[in-house]
Structure formats: structure tokens, C-alpha cells
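Open question from group meeting: does this chain pack into something compact, or does most of it stay loose? Before anyone orders reagents, we agreed to write out a predicted structure and look at it together. Recording both the input and the output here so the notebook holds the full record.
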Amino acid sequence: MVRIWARQLISAESLVTGSGEKIQVVYPGKENRDSGPDFLGAVIATESAGLLVGDIELHLKANDWRSHGHGRDPAYNGLVLQVVWEGDAPVILQNGRTVPTLSLQRCLSGSLTAVRYWANLNMMPKEP
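C-alpha cells returned:
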């Protein structure tokens, strides 16, 4: 999932959160290889809130947020979006703010086989 998100192997027209809000990924963020959210400094455009700058957390299932204990961790208070493979439950941050969830299962830019192929290719780094 990390490579699918990093390389944006998703269909921009089908990005709709579990609450039904359309979003646009302006910048997916920089992969965080340390503890905390998976991507830092992402820019997301939403219908209701405009541009949001913050972090992205990836999970296989929406309820992994709760099982991993992220809702009690202030390191995740900068989150603007949870991205999952399946599920659509919003998350509640430690500071009480609610963040939407986007399910990638219905947003892929092609077949699962094609997306896996592109996700596993070695790519040139985007940053020097």
C-alpha cells in the first residue's frame, strides 16, 4: 500500500472518503521511515475544508487505527487522512479531531495485477 500511495496508482476521479466527500491529492507527502504517520506533509484538497496540509496514515483495514492505539498517540494529531485498503470508518485523533478515511480498494487506476506491477518497479527518486 505504501508504494500505491507514494506513486499515486489510483484513479483521481474515484477518490471519495467513507463519508462521501470527494478529495484530490495535490501532494501525497514524503514517506516517513520512522515512527509516527506513514507520510508527512501531504496536501489534500477537500470539498468542505479546502486545502489541508498534514500527515497520512496507511492501514489494511479501517479498524487497524483503533487496534494499533493511534487514537491515544499525540504524534498522529497532524493527520488529515487515513488511507486503507478496506473499510470507511473515520478516525478520532488524540486531540478529539475527526479525520476521514479513504478506501483504496475502489480507487485503483487499473486492475490489481497492473497496479502491483507498477508498484513493484524500481523508480528514480523524486528528490535528490
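Observations to bring back to the group:
The chain has one domain: 2-120.
The chain is about 15% helix and 35% strand.
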